[in-house]
Amino acid sequence: MKSVFTSALREATRLVRSQNVLGATRAIQRALRVGRHTRPSDERASASSPPIELLASSTRFPGGAAERDQDTRMNAASLRSAADGHAAAQVKKPLGEVLELLRQAELPRVAPDPAPFKKTRKAPPVPKGAAYLARSFACAAGSRDYKVYVPSRGTRRERPLILMLHGCSQNSDDFALGTGMNRLAEEFNLFVAYPDQSLGANPSACWNWFKRSDQLRDLGEPSVIAGITRTLMTEFEIDPNQVYVAGLSAGGAMAAIMSTTYPELYAAAAIHSGLAYGSASDMASAFAAMRGAAPPAAQGKRHRKSAKSGVRTIVFHGASDRTVYPSNAERILTDARAGLTGLVRETQHEGWAGGRAYRRTVIADAHGVPHVEYWSVEGLGHAWSGGNPEGSYTDRRGPDASREMLRFFFEGPGRMPAR
Fold first, then answer.
1. For the chain, how far is it from start to end, CA to CA, in angstroms?
2. What predicted TM-score, i.e. pTM, was given to this entire model?
3. Which CATH topology does 118-411 take?
4. Where do the CATH 3.40.50.1820 domains begin and end in the chain?
5. Nearest CA among 252, 300, 247 for reference residue 278
6. Extended strands (E) in 273-401
7. What is the pLDDT of residues 378-402, one digit of tens each?
8. Residue in 313, 291, 295, 315 with CA at minimum distance from that of residue 303
């Protein structure tokens, strides 16, 4: 058995050093399946499948490619294994052996060339009098770069702030361009910040929503993002009662983590094509969660205990999303509803916007303030609804998610910014 893994290690080492991370992953997968006496046909099927995009894929997708069906070609064998606790237990030991061998080999840290980001992205336009500033933040938990949009209309009164967390293979410029949030920030006279995930922290620039160390208050990435938020609140005139967090995909999952771990910091959260807090605690459970599987019983119990943050939440999800299944949106809805006490009212609205049908569920508290909204958009895949096609993972069709998020934010406690 060990000779199989040793051979796989040599091959994986060679491939990693040549920056072929995908090939190295396949080599390890083949070794694992041989060790479990997997049928050759299953091995070949797994070897031909790319790794999951939301975790650490080395594949790059050009702007506007969100509607592709690359998500349907994910590693089906790995997903079935992750969803099946018994099968996952069977591979636990050999996987640990492989990881230990890789650790002993002292492989260099390899990240994909960041050039694809620069070649396919452009900075969003900045109107006269406004500013789009580059910043960097560092704390004990790490450091991240970020951009902040400052509207042109200066005022002495405090204004809202929105933290926007991009998805995998995106960056701040791409996300700002695709969501059009800077344009709305200018219209409504508010600040918008875009933290950038480091390629050193995740080779595909994914926020590490599936790691336990990045799901806790004052640790890991939540600590860094909260630090950026507080820094902006100090540097600019920000209304502390109107600070919001939003994200797409992996960024949406991280937005859920931020609203749960820092409920006093964010007045509301917007989660587009994301996952609920505590959906995963490692790679295997992340595969399962994205396919719609509920978290294991013990993990789910811890999650439910932490999820009652009371933060108002709006959710957008494509009914045709096959990267993060729509059942994840339902789980977010359940968690957000759990934060309500007393009399609540739930209403359903069906409509048509931007060429797509949608169903909108609104859950209001005892005072009639919308506490939870869920937009299920027909025909929408893993993409930002009503987004700008110049950005990646966007779909120009459907309701304008960015504008609806702002409308939801300002329907809560506080007031709508003067235009």
1. 68
2. 0.74
3. Rossmann fold (3.40.50)
4. 118-411
5. 300
6. 312-318, 345-353, 356-364, 370-377, 384-385, 394-395
7. 999 999 999 999 999 999 999 999 9
8. 295
